[in-house]
Specification:
alpha/beta, Rossmann fold, 9 helices
């Protein structure tokens, strides 16, 4: 590993420095209008005890399930019940550091984007006093960091992410799509109810078992997923003849073929739509994260438009 390769690797020191950028967004159930987390499945009732605070007029972006219909009938205008939340929730990060993530054409590798997003989330969780946990996985192993509260817990999570990230190497080894389901299975064993599960991956290897694992998890927990991708995966550039490699496999490709580039773009679009459609079906927010843009800015734009606190 070369620690000074910006965008290729992310060190523990890099992730500690991200603490100052962990603002302007929230992972809490109650979200501002425009956030992709508004109205996510049963989130207003999960993760924390709720104490009644006030009855107020309905505003755009409020969860319709919080409408007090008796008060609405009496006042002849929509009223909702507002609750304050107790701080006792576990947030579990699933951080993909497989070889399929060790790719990036411009600003950063997908693995670095996942690590950066995980660090920002961990620092945000620490700021609001929740417990933080993680399953960090590569093509060989999936390591569980148990849920704990405090600075030491954040450092344990970030340390494991940095270790897995630093082990990535483009030379040798085989991609293992099954490790995504292995990581999800580990989380399923500890996320029994009232947790927030954040999945940070390129969804490589996702299939029927993946959908079942995530669906079952979302019944009693909140789930949010970030779909991480590089612009080259979306649109293959016309750069002549190239050789693509995966482990010991080599494939020559002529990118000058318009038919090839069209099929390539269509395949990615269909893959992305499958991920989005599953999210819509299960009310699981999907955050697209590109490798050619600042991660913190993308997260703020998705989770709290117009808010910069």
């Amino acid at each position: 590993m070369q620690p000074d390769c910006a965008g290729v690797y992310l060190t523990l020191r890099d992730m500690v420095r991200l603490r100052g950028q962990a603002s302007g967004f929230s992972l809490l159930p109650r979200q501002p209008p425009g956030s992709v987390l508004v109205g996510r499945h049963a989130s207003a009732l999960r993760g924390r005890g709720l104490n009644f605070e006030e009855l107020r007029s309905y505003q755009d972006g409020d969860d319709v399930r919080m409408i007090d219909w008796l008060a609405t009938a009496r006042q002849r205008s929509p009223r909702i019940r507002v609750y304050t939340e107790e701080r006792d929730r576990a947030v579990i990060l699933i951080v993909d550091q497989r070889r399929s993530m060790f790719f990036g054409s411009q600003l950063a590798m997908k693995s670095v984007v996942a690590a950066t997003a995980a660090a920002l989330a961990a620092w945000r969780v620490h700021a609001v006093g929740d417990r933080i946990s993680a399953v960090v996985f590569n093509d060989e192993t999936a390591v569980l960091v148990p849920p704990l509260r405090g600075l030491a817990a954040v450092e344990r999570v970030l340390g494991e992410i940095a270790r897995k990230n630093g082990e990535l190497d483009a030379r040798g080894g085989q991609n293992n799509p099954a490790m995504l389901n292995e990581a999800l299975s580990k989380v399923a064993r500890i996320a029994k109810h009232d947790c927030l599960v954040v999945i940070l991956s390129d969804a490589y290897g996702a299939g029927e078992e993946t959908r079942k694992l995530v669906s079952d998890m979302s019944v009693h927990n909140d789930v949010v997923a970030a779909f991480i991708y590089d612009p080259v995966e979306e649109n293959l550039p016309e750069i002549g003849e190239v050789v693509l490699a995966e482990g010991d496999l080599r494939l020559g490709v002529d990118t000058r073929s318009g038919r090839l580039r069209e099929r390539y773009a269509r395949n990615f679009a269909e893959r992305r739509e499958r991920v989005a459609a599953f999210g819509r079906h299960r009310a699981i927010p999907i955050l697209p994260l590109r490798t050619d843009r600042d991660v913190a800015s993308q997260i703020r734009a998705a989770l709290a438009p117009g808010i910069r606190k």
